[in-house]
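Illustration 12: Rrf2 family transcriptional regulator.
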Amino acid sequence: MHLSTRARYAVMAMVDLACRDGGEAPDGGPVTLAQIAASQQLSLCYLEQLFVGLRRAGLVLSARGPGGGYRLGRPAVEMVIADIVDAVEEPIRATRCADEAGCMKDKDGGTATCSTHDLWCELERQIRLFLSGVTLADVVHGRVSGRAVAPLLLEAV
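Figure caption equivalent — predicted structure in C-alpha cell form:
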C-alpha cells in the first residue's frame, strides 16, 4: 500500500494549522509555513509546494505580505482527511494497477487483471472510506483510534 509522503506531510501540516486555534498564530494572525515547518520538522520548500494544492482546493486561505500566512479555509470539523489527500493530488494505491480496468496485458494485447487485483482495489476503497469518515477535528482531538470497523461487525449490522 502506498500513501505518499506528500499526503502524509499535508495531513501533518493541516493538523498543525488546526491545532493553532483554527489557524490563528499566538499573536492572532495567520500561521506561517515557517512556523509549521519548524514544529513538524518538515521542509519549508516542500510545504510551499503542498500548500499550493491545499489553497487551490479551498482547504486553506492565504494572506500575503508582512504578517501573512495561512488559516483553515473551513472549520476542521467540516474537513475530511480524504479531502487533504486529494488536494495534493496523490491517489491512494494499494496495487500496481493504474486503474481498475487492469494491470496486466492479456495474450491479445488488451488489459487483464492480476490474481489479487480485486483484493487490492477493495483495500483502496476501504482506505478511502476510512479517510472520508475522519475529520481534521477528529485527528486534532485524538478521536481516531478504534474507528475502523471489523468486517464481521459490519455483516452483523
